[in-house]
Amino acid sequence: MRDLVARTEPGFTPLYEWSDSIEHKIATVAREMYGAQAVDYTARAKRDLEQLQKAGFDKLPICIAKTQQSLSDNPALLGRPKDFLVTVREIQLAAGAGFIIPITGEILRMPGLPKVPMASRFDLSDEGEVLFSRP
């Protein structure tokens, strides 16, 4: 296996250049990765886009936030839909991480949590010791 890896030429090609416009990067990912036909922007997303460009953040890569149920921004479009419209409702900046987040659809941007959080298993004894109960 190691020999095969050593003999194989890397085939990775980025979808876009970081120097491309934010709109071009979003459209490229939406079209090439998700199968979208076009991208639309809400008024808020257009304002966000303008602010990011003015502040000089337009050369950062993007990471599109969308529903986990579909490659589109619509959770009802299952599988790999084709020729749909993606709507970017806002665009946020993750300055510390160094990327731009176009947000599509009605999603909740937080990590998934279990039905019973781990925090509910911790307690303190009268002596101040941390107690943990196993399920």
Topology at a glance:
Layout (H helix, E strand, L loop, with lengths): L1 H6 L14 H13 L3 E4 L1 H12 L30 E10 L4 E6 L17 E3 L5 E3 L3
Parallel strand pairs: 1-2
Antiparallel strand pairs: 2-3, 4-5
Describe the protein's architecture and organization.
- There is one protein chain.
- The protein is an alpha+beta fold and 135 residues long.
- It has one domain: Roll (Formyltetrahydrofolate synthetase, domain 3).
- It has helices at residues 2-7, 22-34, 43-54; strands spanning 38-41, 85-94, 99-104, 122-124, 130-132.
- The model has no long low-confidence stretch (mean pLDDT 87).
Structural key phrases:
135 residues, alpha+beta, Formyltetrahydrofolate synthetase, domain 3, 3-stranded mixed sheet, two-stranded antiparallel sheet, 23% helix, 19% strand, extended
Low-confidence stretches: none
Distance between the termini: 42 Å
Q: What's the count of strands? A: 5
CATH superfamily: Formyltetrahydrofolate synthetase, domain 3
The largest sheet has its strands arranged as 1-2-3
The CATH C-level name is Alpha Beta
CATH topology label: Formyltetrahydrofolate synthetase, domain 3
The helix-and-strand class reads alpha+beta
Shape: extended
Give the SSE order as H and E letters.
HHEHEEEE
Residue-averaged pLDDT, rounded?
A: 87
CA-atom Rg in angstroms = 21 Å
Strand content: 15-25%
Q: In the CATH classification, which architecture applies?
A: Roll
What's the total helix number?
Answer: 3
Q: What count of domains describes the coordinates? A: 1
Helix content: 10-25%
